[in-house]
Amino acid sequence: MSQVYNFNAGPAVLPADVMQQAQAEFVHYGALGFGIMEASHRAPEFEAIIQAAEANLRALMGIPEEYAVLFLQGGASLQFGMVPMNLLPAGGSADYADTGTWSSKAIKEAKLFGNVNVVCSSKATNYDHIPAFGTWKLDPQAAYLHVTSNNTIFGTQYASFPTPPAGVPMIADMSSDILSRPLNVRDFAMIYAGAQKNLGPSGVTLVIMRKELAARCPANVTTMLKYSTHIDENSLYNTPPTFGIYILKLVTEWVQRQGGVAGIAARNEAKAKLLYDAIDGSGGFYRGPAKLDSRSRMNLCFTLPKAELDKPFLQGAVAAGLVGLKGHRSVGGMRASLYNAMPLAGVEALVSYMRQFRSCHG
Amino acid sequence: MSQVYNFNAGPAVLPADVMQQAQAEFVHYGALGFGIMEASHRAPEFEAIIQAAEANLRALMGIPEEYAVLFLQGGASLQFGMVPMNLLPAGGSADYADTGTWSSKAIKEAKLFGNVNVVCSSKATNYDHIPAFGTWKLDPQAAYLHVTSNNTIFGTQYASFPTPPAGVPMIADMSSDILSRPLNVRDFAMIYAGAQKNLGPSGVTLVIMRKELAARCPANVTTMLKYSTHIDENSLYNTPPTFGIYILKLVTEWVQRQGGVAGIAARNEAKAKLLYDAIDGSGGFYRGPAKLDSRSRMNLCFTLPKAELDKPFLQGAVAAGLVGLKGHRSVGGMRASLYNAMPLAGVEALVSYMRQFRSCHG
């Protein structure tokens, strides 16, 4: 089969090494006699996997001891409800930065549980940038400050993070850029991410949080939605998504082999530069809707001179083995998701195709 | 590798055909050019899978048009909260039958949202039977009646189901016996099941419910926990656990090849009879703690003459390729889970080992 590059925004490309290893041991895992998918979540083989997944993430991201690392279900969408359910006390208020569709959804869910103070919004310009921190209207009494580190749909990303007022915990939805660049975990009280971009398959949600934060949860929250439940039981309160956690563990080992987060970040910078240079050097044929200082290294959006060219561009791309490039309808045009597992060769093939398409249609 | 039979209670054995097919197409799914695990949940290839999974379940179980078939996350444990959150109005009361650990957990969660009337309980005799329906104290005004069709830990199962008072919807947790025997879906307003016993891997939760029931949900429930959200969006409101749904679809095809639910049920009866006959014909060496009329066809529990024999029994079993037989600590002894995918040959091997062990230790 000829090479296909998968630019989907998620579920997304996984490292070829990981896919091959998982295939090789799919039916017979180690000395188990059957597949890891068929093993009990209490089996020593699976316990070794979930412990290694946690240990690898702690080492790769520098997650301190006072933080829990949890493997949950439901995606970021369930976190939009769980965060205020656990951390926004009745009558309290939380700060939210509105930088895209997923931020807006998080805000909508938080409003079911308390007051929301929208500290900034780029909605008026179709979410084309991350508002400058100096303009944010932060509440020093906020229960927490919520940010979305990368905006998958609009192709924007925080280049750095704000400093919340003293005592206000910062919570970040990092679904689409976790493990893509170095960060200081202690700058955040909590980080969460659906796995299906940089960590593994859909169906696993990673939560990294200061353990003491979980004590804020009111007593009347159902057991499965209390972070404290999963902290107390090391993510084994009930049956976790075992196969997804196994793949995630293989992905963490792959990241280690790439030189860790620093190595991955350098590759991601090079990949993004290659594509942005192709956009910026196209004499205006391709245009990136995101403002320069807010451009994402993960989801790179670009438009063509006229919308009628979208269809031929996409058809030609598929013929060239480049799939998943259609942009979200709220932005239009194209979106290339260059997650960790997208090889540089995929971006080179895309840039080459873009040059060729422009020469025919420019 | 020599044959290993996996008697774990869940995650559990999957059909060998399914495991082999999933392995063969793991890295290259059809003409996609990559694995189905890497495909977008909006890709036509995945849409075909989720639609086939639903259609196959509808055909196998005879699920009528007025019922939704949903693929959710969080397991039965999250349903314990979602059911009352959606269906138990403030100030209302729900009926629950207490037949084991999982029933008790469901009751505990429901109490967070309203009043619970426990209609029956076998707790006093360590949950060794399903209480006779004539003794149940049903509330004709109940918001719903909740039953647990099979009790994984105690090895009991409903041989038939009660008839609730007119207008009271019956809700069943069928996590450990769904798709194992024929039933009339219209006898239930809702059926839910974690996938990891008879349907596929952990991380997928099947919900079958009368669509009109979902309208009862209060407005202040977070979007992801409203059944109506997932009914309206055909389980694609957010990214579902795509790979788990793919495996589930393969399992439904395998059930079709076994002659559907009727064929599976006949096999399950034969498997259970073989093991129960071995227990009952052991001259009292092996004993089944569950009462005869409540014995499960899925999880068959038995004890040895003295607890000191448990360890040698288990060690010998592993040496004979029979794994996952240790009973739950609340019952002790052994538990053989004979889910749909356990072949008759596995039960024959177990019975043969039990005969041999008895001849050495009887």
How would you describe this protein?
The structure is a homodimer of 362-residue chains. The first copy, chain A, is an alpha/beta fold and 362 residues long. The first copy, chain A, folds into two domains: 17-257, Type I PLP-dependent aspartate aminotransferase-like (Major domain) (Aspartate Aminotransferase, domain 2), CATH 3.40.640.10; 260-361, Aspartate Aminotransferase, domain 1. Helices cover 33% and strands 15% of the residues of chain A. Chain A has helices spanning 16-24, 44-61, 75-87, 101-110, 227-232, 242-257, 260-280, 310-319, 344-361; strands at residues 5-6, 67-72, 93-98, 115-121, 145-148, 150-151, 156-157, 170-173, 190-194, 205-210, 299-302, 322-323, 334-337. In chain A, strands 2-10-9-8-5-3-4 form a seven-stranded mixed sheet, with helices on both faces. The first copy, chain A, has a two-stranded parallel ribbon with strand order 1-12. In chain A, strand 6 (150-151) and strand 7 (156-157) form a beta hairpin. In chain A, helix 2 crosses helix 6 (242-257), helix 3 (75-87) packs parallel to helix 4 and helix 7 (260-280) packs parallel to helix 9 (344-361). Chain A is globular. At the A-B interface, helix 1, helix 3, helix 4 and helix 6 of A face helix 1, helix 3, helix 4 and helix 6 of B.
